[in-house]
């Protein structure tokens, strides 16, 4: 995948320690940072599927995980899911 690719990050609502279910981006910060570091433009898109994060490149889902499995906050450099997502985007056609 060329650098500066457009990536659509689709994310669903999730519940956090007694708080109501809603769309939050706190757990996406590391993933956003990793993709931005590679020069990708990331568009956020809310979806209704609970606990889901999907990365789409050229209309194809190249990565999917449970949003609760991503580390809360941070730069994403130590999060293995962020590394996996980065590689999936770089390998996308």
Explain what this protein looks like in three dimensions.
This protein has a 4-stranded mixed beta sheet with strand order 2-1-3-4, with helices on one face. By secondary structure, the chain is of the alpha+beta class. Helices cover 22% and strands 27% of the residues. The protein has one domain: Glutaredoxin. Strand 1, helix 1 and strand 2 form a beta-alpha-beta unit.
Provide the helix percentage. Answer: 10-25%
The total tally of domains equals 1
Query: Can you count the helices?
Result: 2
Query: Which strand order spans the largest sheet, edge to edge or round the barrel?
Result: 2-1-3-4
Q: Would you identify the CATH architecture? A: 3-Layer(aba) Sandwich
Query: What is the CATH third-level topology name?
Result: Glutaredoxin
Q: What's the alpha carbon Rg, rounded to whole Å? A: 12 Å
The string of secondary-structure elements, in order, is EHEEEH
Q: Estimate the mean pLDDT confidence.
A: 92
Query: How many strand elements?
Result: 4
Dominant shape: globular
The main pleated sheet reads as: 4 strands, mixed
Q: Enumerate the spans where pLDDT stays under 50 for 5 or more consecutive residues.
A: none
Which CATH class?
A: Alpha Beta
Spatial separation of the terminal alpha carbons: 6 Å
What is the strand content?
25-35%
SS-based class: alpha+beta
Give the gist of this structure.
Helix content is 22%, strand content 27%.
Task: Give a quick set of tags describing it.
alpha+beta, UPF0728, four-stranded mixed beta sheet, UPF0728 protein C10orf53 homolog, 93 residues, Glutaredoxin
């Amino acid at each position: 995948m060329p650098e500066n690719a457009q990536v659509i990050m689709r994310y669903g609502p999730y519940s956090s320690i007694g708080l109501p279910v809603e769309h939050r981006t706190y757990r996406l910060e590391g993933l956003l940072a990793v993709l931005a570091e590679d020069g990708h433009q990331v568009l956020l898109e809310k979806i209704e599927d609970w606990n889901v994060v999907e990365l789409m490149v050229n209309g194809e889902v190249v990565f999917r995980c449970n949003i609760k499995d991503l580390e809360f906050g941070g730069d994403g450099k130590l999060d293995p899911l962020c590394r996996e997502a980065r590689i999936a985007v770089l390998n996308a056609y």
